[in-house]
Amino acid sequence: MFNKLTLSSLVAALSLTTVAACQAEATTFDFNHQQHVTAGVLNVGYVDIGPKNGQPVILLHGWPYDAHSFAAVAPELARQGYRVIVPDLRGFGTTRFISADTPRNGQPSALAKDVVDLMDKLNIKQAVLAGYDWGARTADIVAALWPERVKALVSVSGYLISSQQIGEKPLPPKAEQQWWYQFYFATPRGAAGYAQNTHDFAKLIWQQASPGWKFSDATFAISAKSLENPDHVAVTLSNYRWRQGLEKGEAKYNVYEQKLATLPAISVPTITIEGDENGAPHPDPKAYATKFTGKYQHLTFTGHIGHNPPQEAPQEFAKAVVDADALAR
Questions:
Q1: The overall pTM is greater than 0.85
Q2: Residue 265, Cβ neighbours under 10 Å: how many?
Q3: How far apart are CA 318 and CA 213, in angstroms?
């Protein structure tokens, strides 16, 4: 028979085992077991891992990628005690518009308001925001318009806030050539072509944006499923057409766009990142450094790193998030 001491030791051991198992489960990125919540105009699909009382970190993906970009970053941050939230942006994955009457609007301030609405719904007063491509632009806008909601910022390619007026200005031919798909999307042929060839189109963008990233077909296929969202094509076309001034956007976002048109400074602690082999259009880091008026660092990831650093260099990206959080302390 067990004596009381033996029994107490066994119970304690089992309790520790249970806690460890729960912690392990809580730090596993399982995209097939998303949570869903109604926030603003969306029903948002998102992964939420790590201790619920940890410092919130919201990771924002780009186009034409998805939340799987953070499949290695999110668990690493969760293991370090962060609560990590990775949502599907509007038009991606399992996120859906609540009403059929809501415009499938892709203008940048709408995506930023989505993040604030999600934070409100999850009762998150302040978070570290980190993203790339559309996700970086979205995080930049939240930091500029709602700085009290952002503890620290990690932004790939730095300051990406712009306006329709700026978008009207022609660029040198070589720069314009990089934006070939933006002009393609402005045409009916482009709209039909993207709808018909979404996966092939996205793979081509991945290859051009990250020429040194030798991703497998299996890796691409996992993310490509998120592009089958019924609103993906409409949101994508809207985003790029809005930038060219071909769409007005929604009036309820006008107040945000007016502020963004002044190219406001970002005052929250920030780390910007650039890959040493980014094949997508991106500004020179020297051109935007002064737009960050708080504590600031810039990092260049080396080793043929392209446009998607969280997936191409996950350990380095996770460290940048931790370091940005430290800047705010």
A1: yes
A2: 15
A3: 18
Q: Which of 322, 310, 245 is nearest to 29 (CA)?
A: 310
Burial 289-316 (b: 16+ CB within 10 A, else e): eebbebebeebebeeebbbbbbbbbbeb
- What pLDDT tens digit does each residue of the chain (329 aa) get? 334 434 344 334 433 333 333 333 456 788 878 999 999 999 999 999 999 999 999 999 999 999 999 999 999 999 999 999 999 999 999 999 999 999 999 999 999 999 999 999 999 999 999 999 999 999 999 999 999 999 999 999 999 999 988 888 888 998 899 999 999 999 999 999 999 999 999 999 999 999 999 999 999 999 999 999 999 999 999 999 999 999 999 999 999 999 999 999 999 999 999 999 999 999 999 999 999 999 999 999 999 999 999 999 999 999 999 999 999 98
Query: Which tokens in the block code for residue 19?
Result: 């806690």
| Rama region for 89: left / alpha / beta (φ>0; ψ in -120 to 50; rest) | beta
The CA-to-CA distance between both ends of the chain, in Å, stands at: 54
Helical ranges in 122-197 per DSSP H = 134-145, 164-167, 173-178, 180-185, 188-196
Distance CA 20, CA 30 (A): 18
Each residue of 62-89: b (16+ CB within 10 Å) or e? bbbbbbbbbbbbbbbbbbbebbbbbbbb
Q: How far is it, in rounded angstroms, from Cα 162 to Cα 264?
A: 10
